Structure formats: C-alpha cells, structure tokens
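Quick one:
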Amino acid sequence: MLTIILIVVAVILLTTGLVWLVDKFIPSKFKPVLTILLWILIFFLGYQTFMSIYEPIKFNEVKNKRYLQVIENLIDIRDSQLAHRQVTGKFAGDFDGLVTFIDTAKYTITQRRDTTVIDKELTKRYGGVETVKDSIIIDTLGFVSVRDSLFGSSDRYKTMMNVPTAKEGTKFTMKAGFLEEDDVRIPVFEAFVKKEDILYDQERDLILQENEVISVDGVNGDALRVGSMDEVSTSGNWPKTYGDSE
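Output:
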C-alpha cells in the first residue's frame, strides 16, 4: 500500500511540475502541441497508477475464489483419509487406493455394554464363593458404507485428486507413511498443491509475493496443504476465513 501511495504522489508532483514548466518556459506557439503530449503523458501515468492499484485487488479476488475451491477438495481428501485410517489403521498412499477404499469399504457399527461376569479364578480361590468382575461387551450392530457416510449420492470423491482452476491434468501431490514417537508408529499423510499451479495464469510478481506471505489471515508458504509428513497433524494450513482447517 505504501508503494501505491508513493506512486500516486509522484504522479501528482510530476504532472504539476510539467504544467508549470510548459506555462513558464515554452513559447505560446508550441504550447498546443506540448499540451496534447502532456495530456497523453498524464493519461499514461494515470493508467499505470490505476493498474498498480487494480491488479493486486483483482489478483486477490481471483486468489480467494480459487483457494476456496482447492480447499474444498483438500477437505474431501482429509475426510477420506481419516475414514481410511479408522477402518484400516493407516492412511492411503495414493489416490487410486483411496478411491477404491471409498467405493468398497464399510464402517462397523458397534455398541458397547458394561456388564459383570463370574471371575472363575477368584471364585476358585475363595473356595467356591461366587466372585464377579466388571467386563465390557462390544456388540456389532451392522455396517454402513463409507461412501454414503462421507459423500451421500455425490461422486465428487472420484475427482478430488484434480486441482480445480489449475491447468488441465494438474493433481494434488499426496504422501502417506508413519512417524515413530516413543517406539510407537503413528500413521501420517500429506496432500498439497503449489500456489503457482493454482494461480498459473496470474502476474508472476504477484505470485512470488503470495509465496512469501506470513500472516494470520493468509495462507502461509508456497502451497496449500493438509496434513504433514513431519508431525502428527491432519490440519490444513489455511485460516478459518477459508473454511474449517481442523
């Protein structure tokens, strides 16, 4: 914003100076021609000033609209991966396997009941006096399709790997694996796309500036991502203004 203000001030000062010079030093017979040239210059500088203000505004409008679409896909990917971990104990390493899982997998619906049963060991130890202990019984009530639970009648999960608004054929990069913490292997995954792929047809300098963003209300870094291969997290790196990142 400071740069824009300086440009506007410079244009005003330059225009004022040129008008003064023409009026002060240029002979009357040359003034009409110079006045026309001056107006052309003023128009050009005004246009440049306008574009210096308008282009970042337009860029932000395009960026925000595209980020929202990309984040919708990243949320679908995360929800699908969380379902995969719940059923299989790990995250899917590729989209083909993840889509197949959604098409075929089912959640097991269970019911947990607390009850008491005879403790045979203690009963024997106490000479046949019946002794009971607490126990938990888990009943299987049925099965529910993962696809129906997550997506209902929609089949958008079949294209969630494609990056909307990017060049045709651009896909999210997805990885999965395990981290070891205290000798425990914890499943992790990550899906991301570079900002320059999302904004491929925008001004290069504005994309480079966007890659350097460090802000609580912006998407920090050079990519939109969900999950992490370096820490146990399934969060997205976007602020709440773009949608649920948790």
